[in-house]
Design a protein that fits this description.
Length: 434
């Protein structure tokens, strides 16, 4: 192996060199992980450090984790027991994600900025360049890492317009025009306020050529609305990351929807067969983190390899995978199990904007499930019948209603804006209050 290979450049090297790089990186991660209080229980009892030729087989013996206890990590840090001593600063940040449960994470400032360099590479290869003026819509959490976004964008040489509160649609539109933004970087849910202002005032703006999203899928419905406001020449790109795993991938111009190049220099990717239907879950090991090692951690996403050899027409040798959707656990409703996706697809099925409707599930005083639709009276008048028909077309819902296990569907006033999203700003169509 060429030991001079920089991790940031691993997606430009031949497959054999990439393989050698991963083997050596896993060997180093084994050394860190088996000693760390938060990950050592994943390793086989009595395991010893494998050799380079043994690491691939030995790695498969390490237990796969569903999640880590972030509060335990922080407690270890406060007691100075987590990882190697650090000469620099640690940084604590939080993400609510889509789970409604806050996650507290900790890392060294150095490794956090190192991860941001890969963000920057992803932004550049997704289409952001030095000629762009990028409107970066932030303000998605109580305390978060927008500075990492800015550090990543700085790697592209672009001009950055930092927006601290994505909810100020009119002001953002004015800034966008005045400073002639050419690209937008945002969580999809962070685009609704700006888009709503443009739609309400029938305003279009052709100056933006590219919208880069991350953190959640960009729905077909939202994409079409954005094209109507920014023009048919608008391009879209996406980066893929989680707070737990770090930045994972990016889209080049040749990637199809939900397809991503993997950041081969930062992470090690495995696909774990979790279901009998052949679907596999994405499992990530972060090759760089030390304060909170990430060893064989599930992402909660089903995925498949689309280019396992790394032969994309863009010229990169990093492999590509497609995200097939979230690992959704069956939702119990009216004593029956249903796929929650059948409820979350309601907006697109009935033609209502996904940020204008919510499916709410509660319990009443008799312990029955209440199925409620939060929507304005105007939209109820237009779409109420279609909404009821769609919900009752789900067999288990219709049976539950008929037998009295489910009360509804009933219409209730729309939720406040902050109630529609998770703590990190992600839109939630289905909200289970039980």
């Amino acid at each position: 192996m060429n030991l001079k290979v920089e991790p940031i450049d691993v997606d430009r090297i031949p497959a054999q060199i990439r393989f050698d790089y991963h083997q050596r990186s896993l060997l180093d991660l084994w050394h860190r992980g088996i000693r760390h209080p938060g990950t050592r229980e994943q390793f086989p009892l009595g395991a010893t450090q494998p050799t380079l030729t043994e690491i691939e087989l030995a790695w498969k013996q390490i237990g796969i984790r569903d999640s880590y206890d972030h509060s335990a990590y922080l407690d270890l840090r406060l007691r100075s027991e987590a990882g190697e001593p650090s000469a620099g600063s640690d940084i604590v940040f939080s993400s609510g994600g889509s789970t409604r449960k806050a996650k507290t994470l900790i890392g060294t400032y150095e490794e956090t900025l190192y991860n941001a360099r890969f963000h920057g590479k992803g932004y550049h290869l997704t289409g952001v360049n030095s000629d762009d003026t990028v409107l970066a819509l932030g303000g998605h959490g109580t305390y978060d890492v927008d500075y990492c976004v800015f550090h990543g964008l700085s790697q592209t040489g672009c001009a950055i317009i930092p927006i601290n509160d994505y909810r100020r649609g009119q002001e953002i539109a004015e800034i966008m025009r005045e400073l002639r933004a050419t690209a937008i970087l945002a969580l999809p849910s962070g685009l609704y306020s700006l888009l709503g202002h443009l739609e309400d005032n029938n305003v279009t703006y052709s100056g933006v050529r590219l919208i880069v999203t991350g953190g959640e899928p960009l729905s077909r419905q939202l994409r079409e609305r954005l094209v109507q406001r920014f023009g048919s020449n608008l391009s879209f790109g996406s980066v893929f990351q989680t707070s737990d795993h770090g930045t994972i991938g990016f889209q080049c111009p040749f990637c199809s929807s939900a397809e991503y190049h993997v950041h081969e220099g930062l992470i090690y990717v495995e696909l774990d067969a979790r279901r009998e239907d052949g679907l596999k879950e994405l499992v990530i090991s972060n090759l760089y983190r030390s304060r909170m090692p990430v060893v064989r951690l599930r992402t909660g996403d089903f995925a498949e390899w689309t280019d396992p050899e790394g032969s994309c027409s863009c010229g990169l040798t990093s492999r590509k995978l497609r995200i097939l959707g979230r690992v959704t656990h069956p939702l119990e409703l009216g004593s029956a199990m249903i796929d929650a996706k059948l409820l979350s697809e309601l907006p697109e099925r009935v033609g209502v904007h996904e940020n204008q409707i919510n499916v709410l599930i509660r319990k009443d005083e008799l312990n029955r499930d209440l199925l409620e639709i939060a929507i304005s009276n105007e939209l109820r008048g237009k779409h109420g019948r279609a909404i009821e028909e769609h919900l009752l077309s789900i067999g288990s819902v219709a049976t539950g209603v008929k037998r009295g296990w489910i009360v509804g569907p009933n219409f209730v006033p729309p939720l406040e804006a902050h109630e529609k999203t998770s703590g990190y700003g992600k839109l939630r169509v289905v909200i289970d209050f039980r």
